[in-house]
Model the fold of this input.
Amino acid sequence: MAAETYEELLKQTAENNEQYVVMTAENRALIRNLPAVLGSRFVDTGITEQCLIGAAAGLALRGRIPVVHALASFLTMRAFEFVRTDVGISGLPVKLTGFVPGFLSDGNGPTHQAIEDVSLMRGIPGMQVYCPADNDDMLKMLPHIWSNNSPTYIRANTRPTSYSHAPYESGKAEVIARGKDVTILVYGMLFEQALEARALLMQEGLDVGFANMRSLSPIDEDYLINVSKSGSLLVTIEDHFLTGGLYSILAETLLRNQLTADVLPMALNHRWFKPGLLSEVLNYEGFTSTQMAEKILNKLGRKTKQAFTSHIISENTFDE
Done:
């Protein structure tokens, strides 16, 4: 039977391969039932992210495959030197799972907001970075992430949506539609809002392309090059700082290939977001579907034909 949750898939994977070791820095929300199943192959170091990474690197050197869990902000910042030096330089197959990244840390202040994590992790040579759109997307990506020999970082996302994603292809974007007027490039939990923004724009008569950039390192450079040549407005959407994320990746790709494009970035521009319920965060920061659609129309110099109806996102994101 196919696994329906992160925990079920990790349990099946670890039971089928004794090389897997599940580790955490006292963040058990995704894996609370695994200690009883895995016994000594479940390691909780306590709130010691640096020690966690050092131990994971040591286990990887001995042929284990550590799947590591911690809050994304502390995993990528507090333990950054250990990730870079112990895991990155040696190219060890340590699998980093960042809990409540980006806007998913909705009620938390700047100290707990992981909105520079993509920039930090993709800056480590050899580190792969994955940002699933929702629970279905994540479950389809995880077998590849866990089985490859590279160090990896994934923005954990267990949010359910009604969208059924295509099977994951290594380093490839999930191209949902191609469009002549606008192409939306998005990753992570904003997929749901961005997809609805596309529907609103289509109602306005626009031909709108859409891609889920589920893998940011490696990035689907061929797709970015081809879509940049299409002449459509490119829109990057991300719950991350403007610097270092998808917008930066697109800019680097264009410059490296001596290309230009009309680009509208939607990201946090040199500031942290205001904490609140997830729906409040999205509305205050301008990331609801209606707000994004309106920004795109404004960029194109067009006005709406009819008032948009806002989509209300559910508040329940993760178990505490």
Summary: The longest strand covers residues 233-241.
